[in-house]
């Protein structure tokens, strides 16, 4: 059994490899392939076999991995842990080129409900994906490529207190005018502009002298040539070969295990890459030993979705058919009977895993008296009578029984009646697919900050709980009778 520090150290590696949702999917893909999972593609037919392991990606920001039990037959259930790959951040606008007062700034838009004041005075860089034109043997193709500039190239400076005496009474951020990162001074950028990026690039013309189009090249009037040069250098291409991109600002400070007793994780994007990592590691470890799928009658699955922070309403979000599509295609591979998918869904179970709010010692009044999740206390089962979470008595019982069997700690959370309640992918999938669901998450502080915090012990508790779920659910579910 791995120690808490070993599991947390593995999480740190995952976090540092995943500055964006695209990179998180890429890292998950590498880990799955190393564990013997075979990549399949939604555009192609699937040839699936029992006791085998597969995964697919959608938009390269959502990934679904699954292992089919050796005793699986069409109509049997799916045992799923679902999480999300995205986190609140600032993303580059389609036209990011901003020049003010002799400075080159980068136009950004806010993504999700971030604590935007935490983005000030941080050493920032840029990461994401680009579409690159590839010319070879007289023909053109277009490649998807991940990019990440390692060193800090931007910063959002705060205003001196001497110019804003009331700032400590309330730091109010105008996200349109105050949140623009500074890239360079105009003078330095002009003096250091290479000859290959003269006015023809600034004016939108390609290097070969052909007429440029904003539709196929985001240069010229859309983005600073300096920024395009940095991105092209990372991608190993010319700035004129960059056709489009989805990029975001990222903190350059690495994730670490910290605290006087080395009991905490300090990092960005714990919401929700911590749960993504724990579920992925649990699936890999629950399907790696020889003969581990020998007696499994169901399908063990992890689904990591994009766009949870903005409502999940996208082709790759939990609100899309991606979950149902996966269940349906797997079922139909083993039987042409279309009625079996409904039977399968009623036998399935989803653990919706999204980070939870830990009790904060400086704001203890923000928690309901009898529901105060604490660090080191294990996963938190989330309850809400108004269905902001999808937990009910049956689903929470199942999750508790697994914890009790393996002596894993567990906690409960209900938001105060006088406070609004957040939500997760749980209710979206429970209502959209019709699958039994429990909402859980590891406790953390500073949720939606650029720098968040959780406990090392809870990383291990979460991983062990998810792993036990994959191993034990089939047997436990066979003993539960509800709709009789």
From TrEMBL:
Protein name (database record): Aspartyl aminopeptidase
Entry-linked InterPro entries: Peptidase_M18, Peptidase_M18_dom2
Keywords linked to the UniProt accession: Aminopeptidase, Hydrolase, Metal-binding, Metalloprotease, Protease, Zinc
Needed co-factor(s): Zn(2+)
GO molecular function annotation: aminopeptidase activity; metallopeptidase activity; zinc ion binding
Cross-referenced Pfam families: Peptidase_M18
Recorded coiled-coil stretches: none
PANTHER family registered for this protein in UniProt: ASPARTYL AMINOPEPTIDASE, ASPARTYL AMINOPEPTIDASE-RELATED
């Amino acid at each position: 059994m791995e120690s808490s520090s070993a599991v947390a150290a593995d999480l740190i590696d995952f976090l540092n490899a995943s500055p964006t949702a695209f990179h998180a999917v890429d890292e998950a893909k590498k880990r799955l392939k190393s564990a013997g999972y075979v990549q399949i593609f939604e555009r192609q037919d699937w040839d699936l076999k029992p006791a085998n392991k597969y995964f697919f990606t959608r938009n390269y920001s959502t990934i679904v991995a699954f292992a089919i039990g050796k005793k699986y037959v069409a109509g049997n259930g799916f045992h799923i842990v679902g999480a999300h790959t995205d986190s609140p951040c600032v993303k580059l606008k389609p036209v990011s080129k901003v020049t003010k007062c002799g400075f080159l700034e980068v136009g950004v838009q806010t993504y999700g409900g971030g604590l935007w004041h935490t983005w000030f005075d941080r050493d920032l860089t840029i990461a994401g994906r680009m579409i690159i034109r590839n010319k070879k043997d007289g023909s053109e193709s277009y490649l998807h490529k991940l990019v990440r500039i390692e060193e800090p190239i931007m910063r959002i400076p705060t205003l001196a207190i001497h110019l804003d005496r009331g700032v400590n009474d309330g730091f109010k951020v105008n996200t349109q005018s105050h949140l623009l990162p500074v890239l360079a001074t105009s003078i330095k950028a002009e003096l250091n502009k290479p000859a290959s990026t003269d006015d023809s690039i600034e004016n939108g013309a390609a290097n070969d002298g052909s007429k440029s189009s904003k539709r196929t090249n985001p240069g010229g009037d859309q983005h600073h040539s300096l920024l395009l040069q940095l991105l092209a250098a990372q991608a190993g291409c010319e700035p004129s070969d960059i056709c489009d991109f989805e990029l975001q600002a990222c903190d350059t400070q690495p994730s670490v295990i910290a605290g006087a007793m080395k009991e905490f994780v300090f990092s960005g994007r714990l919401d929700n890459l911590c749960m993504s990592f724990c579920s992925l590691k649990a699936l890999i470890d629950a399907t790696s030993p020889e003969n581990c799928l020998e007696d499994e009658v169901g399908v063990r699955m992890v689904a990591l979705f994009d766009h949870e922070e903005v409502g999940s309403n996208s082709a790759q979000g939990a609100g899309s058919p991606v979950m149902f599509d996966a269940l349906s295609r797997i079922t139909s591979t083993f039987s042409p009977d279309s009625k079996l998918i409904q039977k399968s869904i009623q036998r399935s179970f989803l653990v919706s895993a999204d980070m939870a709010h830990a009790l904060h010692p400086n704001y203890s009044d923000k928690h309901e008296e009898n529901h105060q999740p604490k660090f080191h206390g294990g996963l938190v089962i989330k309850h809400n009578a108004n269905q902001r979470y999808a937990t009910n008595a049956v689903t929470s019982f199942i999750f508790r029984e697994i914890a009790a069997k393996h002596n894993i700690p567990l906690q409960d959370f209900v938001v105060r009646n006088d406070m609004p309640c957040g939500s997760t992918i749980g209710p979206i999938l429970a209502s959209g697919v019709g699958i039994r669901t429990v909402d859980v998450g590891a406790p953390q502080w500073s949720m939606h900050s650029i720098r968040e915090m959780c406990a090392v012990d809870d990383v291990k508790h979460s991983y062990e709980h998810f792993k036990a779920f994959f191993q034990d659910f089939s047997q436990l579910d066979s003993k539960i009778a509800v709709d009789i």
